[in-house]
## 1
Amino acid sequence: MTEQPERWTQATTYPDMWADPADDPRDREGVSPDGELATLQGFLADYRMTLRMKCEGLDAEQLARRSVPPSTMSLLGLVRHLVEVERDWHNWIGDGDPLPKLYGARDADFDGVVAEQAAVDAAFADLAREQAATDAALAKHPDLGERLGKDGIAVRELMVHRIEEYARHCGHADLLRECVDGRVGQ
């Protein structure tokens, strides 16, 4: 990479933040949620929102750009990857045959990214659908110690694993976004 964008942010209170704390949609007034399940759901919701925030305001070319060569990673690739991950988690919950991959075999979620608005719209629609399906399946199992599926994975482990996956990829998204247009992470 020869051209690096200048770092920028819209925050004024803390110039290295994505947004001022008063404008951050993830910040909530009042006390934290009651209970372990509500806490886990809150963290998952925040990381999901963070990923969407990292993609906001970019066009299809910017979302598909592989910003850190030789990696095949892009923001759109991350979205597509998390679609596949949500589908995999849904597969772990059930006892039936697994749902097939949406984007193809190994790493096709990253490798098959194209800079077309229809592909971007489809990926975000796929993500919303797969998140809702996994959330609905897990809503039937509020006991965090309950074991599900063929492998007997505990609901708690599944929730923590989901949070970890989104958190890790939000870190990637920070770096990818900064390479695209200089916007710094939070």
## 2
Amino acid sequence: MTERWKPSVTVAAVIERDGRFLLVEEHTPEGLRLNNPAGHLDPGESPAQGCVRETLEETAHLLEPTALVGVYLSRFVRSSASGTEDITYVRFAFCGTVGPAIDGRTLDTGIVRTLWLTPEEVRASQERHRSPLVLQCMEDYLRGQRFPLSMVYSDPSLQGAPEMLQKA
């Protein structure tokens, strides 16, 4: 029997304010990289809820999602001494608004700092992007690509995810 393919589900925030985009600078196995506030979807949460959580953890800003920018697929292959890692990501990218950073809130492990960059600065730093989706999501946002939040339906059964019940 062959192993079933299971892509990793991630969420990302595309946050623009005054012509600048909120990115994080983070430590990765490939070195210091730039990324949207983003991360893996946790059991029991909708993609929009996961995006709010990840944005808060990585930037200390509370996100209010307003639209889905898009759903993206990408593949990442990394070779290391222990073998090859081949991961396909499904990314739900949301846009929205944020208030000021919450004073005293510590950023997630691995996050060095947050940055507000112009589109030109984001484009000029592609070699430092964690993934090609950083630029793609921004460009789609700048083109005005928006879908209603209702495009992503989360069934109430998610609230009963076994992993969440064990944490309670």
